[in-house]
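ok new one. same drill as before - structure tokens go in, u give me an amino acid for every spot. 100 of them this time. try not to just spam alanines like last time pls lmao
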């Protein structure tokens, strides 16, 4: 295989990966638009910028909820805020020393 063909194949693979990533992101946005109130959607946009990991966790949770088939009403900003607070909650560990 010539170097030009190899480069073209790599470029095509990169294009396909980027296209898939873009399609996935569009699906996530569509899911959020359908499940969240406009204020909650705006909050999630901010979360996406500040904490991509948390954004992915919330989107995964909402996708699971949507796939479960349960009928839910639109999630308000207050409900989303509570969900985000729960997901970012840090559990404090404590160590107890017991003397014998």
């Amino acid at each position: 295989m010539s170097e030009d063909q190899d480069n073209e194949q790599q470029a095509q693979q990169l294009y396909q990966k980027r296209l898939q990533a873009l399609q996935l992101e569009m699906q996530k946005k569509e899911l959020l638009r359908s499940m969240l109130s406009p204020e909650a959607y705006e909050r999630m946009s901010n979360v996406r910028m500040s904490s991509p990991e948390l954004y992915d966790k919330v989107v995964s949770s909402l996708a699971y909820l949507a796939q479960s088939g349960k009928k839910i009403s639109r999630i308000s900003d207050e409900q989303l805020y509570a969900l985000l607070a729960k997901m970012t909650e840090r559990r404090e560990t404590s160590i107890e020393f017991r003397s014998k």
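The two ends are 74 Å apart (CA to CA). and btw The chain has a mean pLDDT of 88.
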